[in-house]
Amino acid sequence: MESNVSISSAKTDSTRRNSEEKDEGKLITPKEVKKERLRSLDAFRGLNILLMIFVNYGGGGYWYFSHAVWNGLYITDLIFPWFIFIMGTSLGLGISSLVKKEVDPVEGLWGIIWRSVKLFAVGIMYNTKSSNDLENIRMTGVLQRLAMVYFITAIVHYAGESLQCCMRSRGTVSRWRHILSDLAPYFGEWITMLVIIGIYCYFTYWFAVPGCEAGYVGPGGLHRDGAHAGCTGGAALYIDLKVYTMRHIYQWPDIRTIYQTDSAFDPEGLLGTLTSIFLCFLGLQAGKILVCHKGHRERLVRWLIWAIITGGIGTLLCKAQLEDGWVPINKNIMSISFVLVSAGTGFIMLSVMYILIDSWKLWNGQPFTYAGMNSIVLYMCHSIFQGYFPVSWQMPDMTQHWQLLLLHTWGTAFWAIIAYAMYKKKVFISL
């Protein structure tokens, strides 16, 4: 989905200040401001996809470019959550455009359904790149989770935005209504998200999985001297087995080697999709701020406040500890603390990109903007062609960091060049 955002322009700083003072109590609609592409969002997406490619190619063989086996957080663990966050931000801009254009609700709903189906179908096809044995095909995956998260979040927001949209509010309003214009009209959406989080918490911490202790969310196997050997992931694995069966989930997680578990476990399972929806909704909040507030300062202050709130609560839940917090940070089950910290860092990254690119205009976002405009192509192709020259080749000594770093950096640069070529040819592919 192409993401365009309306922002106001001013010829001088003094003109901007006078305009902001004049319109302090007025909600600005997209029709009243100049349209301009939000390059910082493309750059954030592009940085994320190129970082993902570098990590998937091996990250130079450095340990800090790996994923946490179970609890914990590395920079690489934030890549997928940032994609979800960015999708939410883009969603806010896309839905606002539908409402502004007064697109027929049935047509808008069909567009949401169709995009979700395409994402899910492409994800299934992507899972057959190594084996097309349909009896054992993995039904879950990155694109499948994105499809489900997008569908639920988009439906919830489209319904709320169609009923009352801050963009369409006109006339002078109170100062508080203006300040809360990206939050107050969406009370129903927040209630829906809290219900989703409540469902996640019930199954994760109170549902009694047969043969397991209620609330256990560890890796099983040798964890805690084997006391929970058959309880990997708690309810997360139990639900996936009931819905997908063992043959249709991810078979070789790292915990099978580290903790010697005897079970598969899928990091893109159903239960974690619930908290992923909430993460997307927090990204959507960033999009609402873009839609409802025109000034750079207005946007940045709100993003940083949300970064402090989400990051602070997430840190509090895990007590800033690896294992002994109330809710440890865990990407595999998309724990609430992990989701909140991911959202907090997402708000910060978006703010930094926005300051450099759209506000101060110190940088145009290149080369990341090119990759961000064709992220789905880079995601699919970088994996499919990973073993082919000139993307990669056999180095003389594959144990040397400098050789691996050179190889993996080149592989990443190769796809950045492809993205640039597609940009120059004006080829943009999205689902």
UniProtKB/TrEMBL annotation:
Heparan-alpha-glucosaminide N-acetyltransferase catalytic domain: residues covered: 37-153
Transmembrane segments: 47-66, 78-96, 108-126, 146-166, 187-208, 270-291, 303-322, 334-356, 368-389, 401-423
Keywords: Membrane, Transmembrane, Transmembrane helix
Biased composition, class Basic and acidic residues, residue ranges: 13-26
Compositionally skewed regions (Polar residues) per UniProt: 1-12
Domain of life: Eukaryota
InterPro entries registered for this protein in UniProt: HGSNAT_cat
Region Disordered, annotated ranges: 1-26
Entry keyword annotation includes Chloroplast: no
Name assigned to this protein: Heparan-alpha-glucosaminide N-acetyltransferase catalytic domain-containing protein
Organism annotation: Capitella teleta
